[in-house]
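Quick start: what a row looks like.
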Amino acid sequence: MRPIWKPYEKIDSVIRRHRIALLFNYLYFGFMIVLGFVIYYSADYFLALGSLGFGEFMYFILLVYFLVLWQSFFRSLMDYYLDSWIITDHRIIDIHQMGLFKRDISELRYSKIQDISVKINGFWQTMLNYGDVIIQTAGAVNEFRFYQIPQPNKVKDKILQIYDQFNREHPNDIEIHEPPTDNNQPLITNH
């Protein structure tokens, strides 16, 4: 697989969701495991399924429940680790994993940015300093959203700083880069 950034780009930072989102996943799936055992043993105790011949069937249902739960847990871990946002000196790249074999990669050029805002909701997000960064765009996608990232105000300030630098260095969104050939004529691209 070829890299998703261009050779003349410098990667400033790679951002992932806050680790507290992973902790909430662990707590949710831990609760669901305990709930499965509680339902199984409660049904066995109150309904005496073993004496009716349904004990093995309930055990099979419990195993299928745990298999589905394990698959969901693995998918949520994969989603956490493979979702990322890459901030370069020319654009922002959003990598979003959707399912096991589908990945959506979007990019936002700094010339398309119209507005950047930060959204921090609730007690935990305020106390642990994480939230969403929302970038309004002039492109086909109305907004870019960084979900549950740590220190969203610092990320917003960093994007604005790179945005200002990009506009100073690339007036009218014109980029001049060295071509991959040997003739040393600059490559001018319009975005």
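That is the whole record. The first strand starts at residue 11 and ends at 15. The chain has one domain: 8-172.
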